Amino acid sequence: MDLSNSIPTLLDVTKNFGLLSGYRVNNAKSSLMLLNEDESHSPMDCTSSFCLTDNFTHLGVHVVPEMGMLVQTSYDPVLESISKSLERWSHMPISLIEQNNILKMNNLPKLLYLFQNIPLPLPTSYLSKLKKICLNFLWNNRRHRLRLTLLYLPSERGGLKLPSFLWYYWAAQLRTVMYYFSSEPTPAWVDIVTANLNQVKRTKGFTAGLPKVCLK
Question: Who's near 60: CB < 8 A, 6+ residues apart?
Answer without folding.
Answer: 74, 113, 114, 117
